[in-house]
Write a structure and sequence with these properties.
Largest sheet: 7 strands, mixed
Number of domains: 2
Region (Disordered): 174-204
Protein name: Tellurite resistance protein TerA
Family: Belongs to the CAPAB/TerDEXZ family.
CATH topology of the largest domain: Lipoxygenase-1
Domain TerD: 2-169
CATH architecture of the largest domain: Sandwich
Distance between the termini: 48 Å
Biased composition (Pro residues): 187-204
Number of strands: 25
């Protein structure tokens, strides 16, 4: 159902998927979807009521950011909303979009779709066609009315980006701090000791900064983004297209995917002392965080969900020990290729801006893909987007294939998990 601005329709579903879509191309800014959970005051109750790329899951579990999915010349960024699980105090869920690297006047085909999460049926659609200099948009809102849920097409633009939009709804945004005053400090005034309760920790503001790696801008310095210490979480999440008899081409049928797909996130490492190895679920080589190799695989996930997925943790307090680290992914079972797989990689330093990128469309019978290469350049770790699909030769394992492609020079033996 295509809607006009200001129109509303009932939402006869307990759970919905909200897709923000647009057409991509040269010079088109990246777009990010977000959701704000509002109380009857029209404002958030806390900073946790913003769900977006840096805060992908609401504490209630009712709203989740599921990430982007490219398909041909278009991209969708999806939010999952379980209306039945929303807390009674939440009166409205505002769905917004923000442009990264330009304004919405340069984003063709911007739209929002509300789908029944069970059947996939489209319940509502609104196409935004009048954008000019706006860098953020409230595209629509889900709201309660007499015990039922409805959707309204809004189309309200902001020229202050996600930060301005979020601030208007009560979110405290992390902004650069002003430099301290250079004036001389006042002389201390003696005071009698007074017993007092320990101060409460100040709430941490929401960090909106991020880095998106593309083919045109494939590298980033972690030091320049503030990621110089603590830990860095590397997350891989994915969505799959189920096998279909309607796939017409011979290549398509050969690459058809199954529902029980199992991907493994792995890392080849080389330390400055010359030691090399692999961190992976295969062979239970989960690594270690506080001793070499300072990389740990959290577990073996089979869902690909954005709040879980496959996760590696890298100890940046020992960054001087790394010479290079290659993050890669293999298909363990459930498919013969990455074709039809839509995956997102996010590197989140504890004290820096997240770095993310999506994999390219796979057109090869590939079962192993180099994701990101991290190299030590003068004490700074530099991340390079790879998105490199590799095709193993007959009888050659995916691990040995990626080793040969990147010149790691390791000896491999069969392993199981």
């Amino acid at each position: 159902m295509t809607m006009l601005k200001g129109a509303n329709v009932p939402v006869p579903a307990d759970s919905v998927r909200v897709e923000v879509g647009w057409r991509t191309g040269p010079g088109v800014p990246d777009v990010d979807a977000s959701a704000l959970l509002l109380a009857s005051s029209g404002r958030v109750r806390s900073d946790g009521d913003l769900v977006f790329y840096n805060q992908a899951r609401h504490a209630s579990g009712a709203v989740r950011h599921e990430g982007k999915r490219p398909a041909g010349g278009a991209v969708t960024d999806t939010l999952a909303v379980d209306l039945a699980r929303l807390e009674p105090a939440v009166e409205k869920v505002v769905v917004a979009a923000s442009a990264d690297g330009g304004d919405f006047g340069r984003v063709p085909g911007l739209c929002i779709r509300v789908l029944d999460a069970g059947s996939g049926a489209e319940l509502a659609r609104f196409d935004s066609r009048d954008a000019t200099v706006e860098t953020a948009f409230v595209l629509g809102e889900l709201y309660r009315r007499q015990g039922a849920w409805k959707f309204r097409a809004v189309g309200q633009g902001y020229d202050s980006g996600l930060a301005g939009l979020a601030t208007d709804f009560g979110i405290t945004v992390d902004e650069p701090q002003a430099p301290p005053s250079r004036s001389a400090p006042a002389a201390p005034v003696p005071a009698a000791p007074v017993a007092a309760a320990p101060p409460r920790p100040a709430p941490q503001p929401v960090r909106l900064s991020k880095v998106t790696l593309t083919k045109e801008a494939p590298t980033v310095s972690l030091a320049k983004q503030g990621g110089t210490s603590g830990t860095m979480r590397v997350n891989l999440n994915w969505q799959t297209r189920k096998q279909s008899r309607g796939w017409g081409s011979k290549l398509g049928r050969a690459m058809a995917m199954h529902a029980d797909l199992d991907l493994d996130l792995c890392a080849l490492y080389e330390l400055t002392d010359g030691s090399k190895g692999v961190v992976q679920a295969l062979g239970n080589a989960f690594g270690a965080l506080h001793r070499p190799p300072y990389i740990h695989l959290d577990g073996d996930d089979r869902t690909g969900a954005v709040e879980t997925g496959e996760n590696l943790t890298v100890n940046l307090d020992h960054k001087e020990r790394f010479r290079r680290v290659l993050i890669f992914v293999t298909i363990y079972e459930g498919a013969r290729s990455f074709a039809g797989l839509h995956a997102t990689v996010t590197l989140t330093p504890q004290h820096g801006a997240p770095v993310d990128f999506s994999l390219d469309e796979c057109t090869l019978p590939s079962t192993v893909c180099g994701l990101a290469l991290i190299t030590n350049q003068g004490g700074d770790l530099v991340v390079q987007r790879e998105s490199r699909f590799l095709v193993p030769e007959r009888g050659v394992s995916p691990q040995r294939t990626v080793d040969q492609a990147y010149g790691w020079g390791m000896q491999w033996t069969p392993g199981r998990k």
